[in-house]
Amino acid sequence: MAADTFAVLARWLLGAVFLYLGLNKALHPVEFLKLVRQYDLVQSSLLLNSIAAALPWFEIFCGLLLLAGVAVRGTAVMLIVMLVPFTVIVFRRALIIQSALAIPFCAVKFDCGCGTGEVFICRKLLENCLLILFSIWLLAGYGRKLCVRHTLMSCIAKTSLIKEGRSNGSI
Amino acid sequence: MAPDRWQPVRNVLLEALLVAAAGIVLAFGANLVSPRGLVLTRNYFPAGISRPVPAATGAGSPRDSASTNLPAPSPAQMLAARLKEQGLQTVDGRQAAQLFHDLRFQQGSIAFIDARDEQQYRQGHIPGACEFDPYYPEKYLPTVLPVCQAAEQIVVYCNGGDCDDSESAAILLRDVGIANRKLFVYTGGLPEWITNGLPVEIGGRNSGNLRTTNK
After folding, report:
1. How far is B103 from chain A (nearest CA, A)?
2. Per-residue pLDDT tens over the stretch B88-117
3. What span, in angstroms and rounded, lies between the C-alpha atoms of A166 and A128?
4. What pLDDT band is residue A158 in, cutting at 50, 70 and 90?
5. What does the alpha-carbon distance between residue B145 and residue B6 come to, in Å, rounded to a whole number?
6. Among all residues of chain B, which has the CA nearest to that of A82?
7. Is the Cβ–Cβ distance between A31 and B118 less than 8 Å?
8. Nearest CA in chain A to B119
9. Interchain pair B67, A102: CB under 8 A
10. What digits encode the pLDDT tens for the residues B155-204?
11. Nearest-CA neighbor of B164 among B92, B63, B81?
């Protein structure tokens, strides 16, 4: 019971965090574009622009779904799909900076493009790990309370079963 | 018939695909209608997308040159090398100040172009400099182009250090027909200008609201 209440709070927190981070980037797309560029992920301007243009709004969308409690597990999968590679590339970038500046790893501070400005890398990694853990928790099926429609697929499956039943009956 | 034990997993994955598809469509739609949205087909970095300079600060000391055979180049040195590669000329703080005090600046034969964003420009720019954010050229070119066409020397600047917006602005101006010989990038940018105790103008161009910072 307490676990489920805590999971609802985690869902709201995750939703609010993604909404906030997404809005920060969506309101300053050029700044976000410059930050995405620093990772040297792609060499095509079309791809780079697409990532910088779509990612903030996608995060806002996921944040809203979590806050409302719609397709929670599917959204949790998408958050994990985004967070794990983000964390890896931020970690790699921090290693490059650490080696370039010859400073302790946790003293590396840079704007990772996460929507929070300049942050110390160890803090950022810890935050990301926490967000990934929350996402896994939601994926496991917790946080069902106060959801508009926790599982989208069961609703779709039920509708298709009803349609199937009707068409079988009509033959 | 035994229930398919993989069905719940498939359902979750299918749900994730639905979220992804709907999210991507909405995200691109939102970017399209947003007044600040990016133009997907535009090359915002005409000097190249790759950017090997680590734009970061460390809580510790910078790279110890004694630990390596070669001292690490500063961001400004790397920018100067890149500008040279692009065939762009540079000016230092002393030359920029000379051009600013030159009578030809008042006559319009010398132009200063500020390649930072609107907010930064409003907070302070070189007096008389034109605002030209290279990420929104359609907004600024109609004003900037006649000024550049009339000028014999154009000094483009941004925030110094590893800021390469002045480079993008200069390349953009060259691409729209401004002769390369007229274009100069002030690598020190506004921070150096302020450090040198030169005046900055607050608000719009020629607002007359000048502020001089002491050296």
Report:
1. 36
2. 999 999 999 999 999 999 899 999 999 999
3. 48
4. low
5. 63
6. B20
7. no
8. A28
9. yes
10. 999 998 888 899 999 999 999 999 999 999 999 999 999 999 999 999 98
11. B81
Whether A154 has its CB under 8 Å from any CB of chain B: the answer is: yes
Which residue in chain B is spatially nearest to A121 when comparing CA positions?
A: B58
CB A56 within 8 A of CB A62: no
Is B5 strand, coil or helix?
coil
Nearest to B58 among A50, A58, A103 (CB): A103
Contact criterion met (CB < 8 Å) for A61 and B40:
no
pLDDT in tens, A16-50: 999 999 999 999 999 999 999 988 889 899 999 99
Angle between helices A45-68 and A2-27 (to 10 degrees): 150
Distance CA B136, CA B39 (A): 10
pLDDT reading at B133 higher than 90 = yes
